[in-house]
What we know:
The protein is an alpha/beta fold. Helix content is about 35%, strand content about 20%.
Amino acid sequence: MIEGKDSAPGVKSLTCGMIGGGQGAFIGDVHRKAVAMDRGAVLSAGCFSQDADNTLRTGLLLGLDRDRLYRTYGDLLEGEAKREDRIDFVIIVTPNHTHFPIAELALQKGFHVVCDKPLTTDSREAQKLADMSREKDLLFCVTYAYAGYPMVKHIRDIIARGDLGEIRFVQAEYPQDWLATPLEKTGQKQSLWRTDPARAGLSNCVGDIGSHIENMVTVMTGLSIHSLCARLDIFGEDRVLDDNASILVNYEGGAKGLYWSSQIAVGNDNGFRVRIFGTRASVDWNQEQPNYCRMGFIDKPTEILSRGRDDLTPSAARYIRIPSGHPEGYYEAFANIYATFTGALAKKKAGEPLCAADLDFPDVDEGVRGVRYIEKCVESSKKGSVWVELTGKK
Ligand SMILES: NC(=O)c1ccc[n+]([C@@H]2O[C@H](COP(=O)([O-])OP(=O)(O)OC[C@H]3O[C@@H](n4cnc5c(N)ncnc54)[C@H](O)[C@@H]3O)[C@@H](O)[C@H]2O)c1
């Protein structure tokens, strides 16, 4: 179908501040482009780095006022809390170990929060953030960005309405090869902290990309993991954290799964793929071709669904921006999450009630579940790849 569509109307009254994402960083700039895409909020304050010069350079380049560029995240949260035109929410895009103290202070100061995954490096801390955000009635989004693709929402909806029959088996993989060589020994910024347990947490590979598998499969299928058996491997010389992981999963209700994530899979860029097999049909979705989904059926020919051409469910179609054949990708998926989050926040600020569709972004409870999953994978592997139960609290 050839039909244009305006972006979401935008809510120019919202403002945000960013912690992390200075020059040389990876994901902060993606967040900035994503939040700006639908004009959901204006970036008005920043502490982009521990290096104040970097914060100044980054902030001035972005056109921010000097008096809203802060030396530390504490200064930003304290300083903004005192302003009449204080920011509405904080975006946290720093390495994993800093998420908890920053998010905790942000909530204490009454800011809504968008934090990147994994939410924290300890599930008790993650639960504390969930409890605090609830007590203080503050919105909290955890940017499992792939959940923002229209095709992912469509798959979620058709599985929920029973199109696949009963889910029997899930196979999900996330192979990359960027750590196939000892990149961290060259001083490369992103590899340095991801291979350091003090900054990455208990796991590198499962924490960094295996966590996306856990979230995506849960979102798509609605299944809860009952127990898992994990083997976390270290192939890189002198590494102390995993760079490859194989995980068997038992879901509540009897379905089974197999997850593989790797940073040493030579020849792979970002090959995140999920295949879900039901009693009547299956789906096959690949992040590198996110506009399409292959569906197989027990009783009719295979179909390739196309975003923009074929009918998607209403809650998926609402996120389609451009006609079919014009690829939408990572930025748009990220922006979809921001459009939903800022839309919900604008309604909340206006005192309007929020419905389930308003809250269709990855929330703090998903963040907590993700951290518990990482911990259980590490526990299973350390005990010799034994089965461990995931259900219940730590
Ligand atoms: N959702 C996704 O798909 C996705 C993708 C990539 C990264 N991430 C997550 O985003 C986070 C950042 O990853 P990255 O690859 O951008 O890291 P990065 O190393 O490229 O950037 C981190 C930034 O945080 C800054 N920083 C560190 N400590 C700080 C502090 N105390 N105060 C202010 N700034 C500080 C650094 O100076 C740097 O600018 C990680 O938690 C990572 O897991 C998520």
